[in-house]
Structure formats: C-alpha cells, structure tokens
Amino acid sequence: MNKKLIALAVAAVASTSVSAAEIFNDGTSSMAIGGRAEARAAIKDGDMTDNSRVRINVLGTTQIAEGAYGVGFFEREFKSNESKDENRYIYAGIGTEFGLVTYGLNDGSLGMITDFTDIMSYHGAGASSKIDVADRTDNNIAYVGEFGGLTVKANYVGENDSVEKGYSLGAVYAMDNGLAMGLGYADQDTNAKLTESQIEAAISYSINNIYVAALYKDGEEKLSGAKTDLTGYELAAAYKMGNTKFTTTYNNAESKAGSTKSDTYDSIAVDATHYFNDNFRTYVSYNFNLLNENEVDTKKDAEDELVFGLRYDF
After folding, report:
1. Minimal CA–CA distance to 200: which of 163, 231, 157, 173?
2. pLDDT beneath 70: ranges in the chain
3. In this protein, which residues make up the domain named Porin (predicted)?
C-alpha cells in the first residue's frame, strides 16, 4: 500500500496511539491495534473518586485502487463505572490524496480548533465546549483533507438521539515559523426544538520548548423566540523541560439571557506530566475553581480539584 496514503489514513484518525502495534500487513491491507490504560484518582472536597479508564482501538486500511484507500476504525472506552462505558468511534470511509470521507460515529469539525488550548493531561477545555454536531457524534458524514499546512474539515449530521440535523466546518493553517491559526463554525437543530450555533477561533505559537495559545468562542441558543448568548475564552501555555511538561490554562465562559448574565465556567488549572518513555507517563493536575457557590447547582461544583494519574499507551 502506498506509504503516503497510509500516512493520510493514520493522520485522519486523531485518537490512535502513536505506539499502536501493526499486527497485519500484506502490502495492500494492514491492521493496527492501540489504546491506553489510565488510572486516575480525583480528589474534591475531601472525597476521592476513581475516574480510571481503558481505551482499545482497531484501525484497518486497504488500498482499493491506484491512489485510493479504504479505512475502518473502532474505539471503545471502558470506565471504572461500567454504566459509563461507551463506543467512541465506529466508522469506515474512502480516501485519496485529496482527503478522506467517512460515515458513522466520528468527530465533528471543531475538535481541531479546541485542540489549540485543550493541552492538559486532565483539566482545562471547559469554556470551549462544542455543540453536538461539532463534537463526536453518530449518523455523521465527515470529510478531512490536508493540503500543505492547511487542514480542512466538514461534516453533516442527520437525526440521532440528540440532534435533528446540523453541520460544522473548520480550517487550521500551520506555518513553518511555529504560528498556527484555526477557525470553525457549527449549527444544529436539536430534538428538543432548540436551535444552536457557535463560532470558534484560535491561535497558537510554539518556539523551542514553549507553547502558547488562545481561543475565543461565540454562540447562541434559541428556543421559542428566546435567545441565550454563550461566550467563552481560553488561554493556554506549556513548557517542556527534559522529559517533563508543565501546562496551565485559564478558562472563562459566560451565559447571557436578556439582561441576565452569569458565569458558567471560571478556572485556572496547572499540571505537570513526566514521560518515562513513549508508552508510560504520570501526572498531577490541580484545578482552581473560581466560581462562587451561588453560581452553581451544588456547593461541590464550586470546589477545587486535585487529580493524580498514571497512563500506559499501547
């Protein structure tokens, strides 16, 4: 199978592990198995919760014609609380050097925008939450293409458990000087007769062992003529020192209905991750929750949180 086509197929599957093991390759078709085992202890208000999980994925690729390939991908996540187990990806598609088209349970188009600031081992990414069609969802026709430093995505979602119909579009341009920019838009009608839309823009810069990024989100919800504006922004920074990476993010989100404003997310998070090798890492993450008790449903939702984690990638 053409090496360039294999690279495109693997690049299109963002969740595959870098250490995924190829278990079959006959020159035309291949199969790889990957995943992670992650032990996570979360401590909030003196209580410790087991948030451990395991992900297992299978990626198959096959050359179906000169310059064209087929791909199939499956990933399931098993959690310490079995009731929260879920299929994360189930899709198949056809690709060429001009891009990959898939159908099934797959990502929307704004994940590559939120990835600019979603850099922490556990916390962060609270203000950039995506609507369903822009996130991972089923009944999803998706396209992704890479053209030099430009990556473009588009997807359309038909009716499923949460969405009546909708779409999302996104583009990221990465320059050789370390600067990258991203822009995306999503729109959907839900089964609850709620209309939602959002736009997200991000920018980042990396030099040597330093990375900085910023993201802004502007969205709205409409129900029976009533409109709620949803805005948010995130700031992120990372510094790598040897085999240890330090990251921090600030997340702030606001809801406005008429003249009523309220903060829905407000936090500063810091973490440190040590990579023993490509397969094993450990981390500690702390979230400083800046919300007041009167801005959340329960007192615990306004508490800080400390998380310890051990992760093995295979």
Report:
1. 231
2. 1-19
3. 7-289
